[in-house]
Amino acid sequence: PQRSPYMCANRYMFLENTRLNKIKFSKDQINELKQVIEEYRHKNYVPLNKIAYKLGYNLSTVRREWRNIDPNVRRGPWQVDEDEALLRSVLKQSNRGTINWNLVACDVPGRSQTKCYHRYIHLTRKHLKTEFQPKDDQLLIEQHQLKNARWSQIQPLFPGRSCYTLQNRWRKLIQYRQINELFNSQQLNVQLFILKQFPAKITVTPSYNNLYHAPNFQLTYDQLQCLTLNSLFKQFCNEIDLHSVINRIGIRQFLNKLSTSTNIQQIKQLFFSLKRTRQKQLK
Hints:
The chain starts with a helix and ends with a helix. It contains 16 helices and no strands. The relative contact order is 0.05. The protein has 4 domains: 65 residues; 45 residues; 87 residues, no CATH class; 54 residues, no CATH class. By secondary structure, the chain is an all-alpha fold. The protein is elongated, with a radius of gyration of 29 Å.
């Protein structure tokens, strides 16, 4: 009850695939797998999808067993001839929008498509700067809009960057944009207080035309939103003089104080009252 047919089918497939992944093939099943592979294979290409469908097993199970019994599988460090074959195969697909790693693996006997992909990223990363440049961020944003988040088509434009690296960078840029938009919509005194009390370790020249740069303060979007929605905080920023602030308070302590305070004087004591240790030092 209270489950749709799709949810039941999806759950059944998950449980069945989990069970099949734990199955270890017997000798008869391994011999049957070898016969079917010899029947379907074309040179170095083995259509494991068709084989898994015919045998009635999960694709990952068939792939795992075939990797264990395939005599042509090569393990260990890559050789120079393998790297050359890999780069030649990728170069042949330079006119394509995306690289078909199944075809690449066929040109590199003994290596799977996943290993070919990771090896290619490793080879092209040698001459790559680790940090993203502003022009890289701009190109990533433009290509994400043009190609509708098809990371396999975007990745060839960034040699040495994997799809996961580009996706994580894009998510971080979106977070930067949300934080900068919320920060720029605040009053000037609120902005000055945040920049002085919670400065970033590395300052970036602000640009209102480009909202995808890292903010100059160490606040997450949720923390910044909690501050800006608090009426006591806005009143506090309007009444204080930033040059007379004595103490620097962490963001977590400040948010806790805001949530428990009932008047503005309780918040001012955090920043304008000398602590006992400092009072002794001044004496």
